[in-house]
Design a protein that fits this description.
Layout: H1 2-19, E1 22-27, H2 32-36, H3 39-47, E2 51-56, E3 68-72, H4 76-82, H5 85-91, H6 99-118, H7 121-128, E4 136-140, H8 148-153, E5 157-161, H9 167-173, H10 195-228, H11 235-238, E6 244-247, E7 263-265, H12 280-287, E8 293-297, H13 309-320, E9 325-329, E10 342-345, H14 350-354, E11 359-364, H15 368-376, E12 381-383, H16 390-399, E13 403-405, H17 413-425, H18 427-441, H19 447-460, H20 476-479, H21 482-523
Parallel strand pairs: 1-2, 1-4, 2-3, 4-5, 5-6, 6-7, 8-9, 8-11, 9-10, 11-12, 12-13
């Protein structure tokens, strides 16, 4: 009996170690969609007894957070706006800016924002507090500067992304992706690729690799060393210590990719909860729509108020002629000549709205979280992509028959109206959305359950070093077998050279013998 009791107490102690870990979570991105993607994970980990310190640009307003201490970085939005981030994202291409120049401007704005975040009093206190300790770091790896917290507190870390991970992160954890089979999500390609697309994908991959490691990381290392100390390792080296990578990827929606055991797919609408009642004004508007409602939102980063005049006119003239009510998430009150069937709102509880049975269509910028919410609630879509992964998401939307897409750069009233009516009137799109939704829900574990289990496993195993891909430590020439190929080619060259020399020697001997024989004949 005493042995059983001792065993039970020991087991409880082990469980307590796992359940009462101290976790530092950092999500620097000033983007609401990036923040909400991870909220269920923070809440579930806290519910299971873990103490969480969360650095976030969108603090949760929930009285029941319990074990979650939040460090408010909401001022990041103002810093980003001062850098002109909304103009870059919404109007950049219309003003003739190239993709690379827009990306450079936006990444520079992110770096300035990260510098501001690290200068905040609570963050500086956290970094400088020598008595502070954590058991695990969970960090959004889209902004690599945050990985330096792992070096500061000497803890294993999990990288998380609100969408798929960029190539550099997959490479860092050992998920090596062939650029022809798996093009980067910034490219509007899906397999199988044409020859031109394959050439673009390979070139983009090489250029991006060079840019990240020889331009971006060196500049970000300077920021890290200013705030974490001169002795801090380079981010390129820190990222290779990543224990796990959690990606918001759903194999029902995304392409199948090879990955290691330490890459966890947590996609499929992890952030989606039970629908709550809509605000009265919005609910009354939607309830009164006998023919249905079209919901139009370009997400949290793209500002409808900054759309070009031509695009806005094409959209408004189309919406005016539709026999539906339109609810448009719009950041400005001053829109002229607003049709009677269009209602502007600055904010919408999107998940709850899409769950309303009167919502017949979602016009979206093709952000992943928005598309997940539409699929979950069986709402077909018209996609209007602007940036980043939105273009590849739009192609997936169209290829899986979840809706249609339009090119905002050349959009006309005729094309927009035709596209909207096709998706509304053809039942195949609704059927496809329902089918994809049901398949996404037919899983052994939800994405949240999977993420929680592997998080606690990482804590218990102190970083799960046994799951690390040994290929990470290879030099690039070793990984691509260039040294082996070089040796074999050298050996082959030596062998061929020896054979050639032997043949030449034999040839000389043969000719020498013939010459000797001829000389002897002449002497006779």
């Amino acid at each position: 009996m005493q042995i059983k009791l001792l065993f039970f107490i020991t087991l409880l102690g082990l469980l307590k170690y796992s359940e009462n870990a101290r976790i530092l979570a950092s999500v620097f991105s000033p983007s609401y969609s990036h923040q909400i993607a991870f909220r269920p994970l923070w809440k579930e980990l806290a519910k299971r007894g873990h103490e969480i310190t969360l650095l976030t640009t969108n603090p949760m307003k929930d009285p029941d957070l319990g074990n979650i201490k939040q460090i408010d970085l909401s001022g990041s939005y103002k810093v980003m706006e001062e850098q002109g981030s909304s103009d870059i994202l919404t109007r950049g291409r219309n003003e003739g800016k190239s993709f690379m120049s827009m990306a450079q401007l936006y990444l520079d704005a992110l770096d300035r924002t990260a510098e501001w975040q690290l200068e905040q009093h609570e963050v500086k206190q956290l970094i400088q507090n020598n008595s502070e300790h954590f058991d695990l770091l969970i960090v959004e790896v889209m902004n690599p500067i945050q990985m330096a917290f792992s070096e500061r507190f000497k803890v294993p870390f999990i990288g998380i992304t609100p969408l798929d991970a960029p190539y550099r992160i997959h490479d860092a954890i050992g998920n090596y992706m062939h650029p022809i089979v798996f093009p980067d999500y910034f490219l509007p390609f899906t397999p199988p690729l044409t020859f031109l697309q394959r050439a673009i994908s390979v070139t983009f991959n090489w250029a991006n690799w060079y840019y990240q490691y020889y331009v971006r990381y060196p500049s970000e290392d300077l920021i890290v060393r200013r705030h974490f100390g001169e002795g801090t390792r380079a981010l390129r080296d820190i990222e290779k210590d990543m224990s796990f990578l959690f990606v918001n990827v759903n194999p029902i929606f995304h392409s199948i990719r090879p990955h290691g055991l330490n890459t966890v797919l947590m996609g499929g609408g992890t952030h989606i909860g039970k629908p709550k009642p809509l605000p009265k004004e919005i609910n009354d508007f939607v309830d009164a729509a006998k023919d249905g409602v079209i919901y139009l939102s370009l997400g949290s980063n793209i500002k409808s108020a900054l759309l070009t005049d031509d695009l806005r006119k094409a959209m408004l003239s189309t919406l005016k002629e539709l026999p539906y009510k339109i609810l448009w998430k719009f950041e400005d009150d001053g829109l002229q000549n607003l049709p009677k069937n269009v209602k502007l709102v600055k904010w919408v509880p999107q998940q709850d709205l899409l769950a309303h049975p009167n919502v017949k269509l979602f016009i979206t910028q093709c952000g992943l979280q928005s598309m997940e919410e539409a699929i979950f609630n069986h709402v077909p879509m018209v996609g209007m992509p602007f940036m980043g992964d939105q273009h590849s998401n739009a192609i997936i939307l169209r290829s899986k028959g979840l809706g249609l897409t339009v090119d905002r750069m050349n959009l006309t009233k005729t094309e927009f109206k035709k596209t909207v009516l096709e998706v509304l009137n053809n039942p195949i799109y609704k059927q496809n959305v329902i089918e994809i939704s049901n398949s996404s829900k037919d899983v052994d574990m939800s994405g949240l359950e999977r993420a929680v289990w592997w998080t606690e496993y990482c804590i218990r195993s102190k970083g799960a070093k046994h799951l690390r891909n040994p290929a990470i430590d290879l030099h690039w020439y070793q990984f691509y077998l260039l040294d082996v190929i070089g040796l074999l080619l050298t050996g082959l060259l030596v062998l061929v050279t020896i054979i050639v020399l032997i043949l030449k020697l034999l040839k000389r001997l043969v000719f020498k013998n013939k010459n000797n024989q001829n000389s002897n004949k002449k002497l006779q």
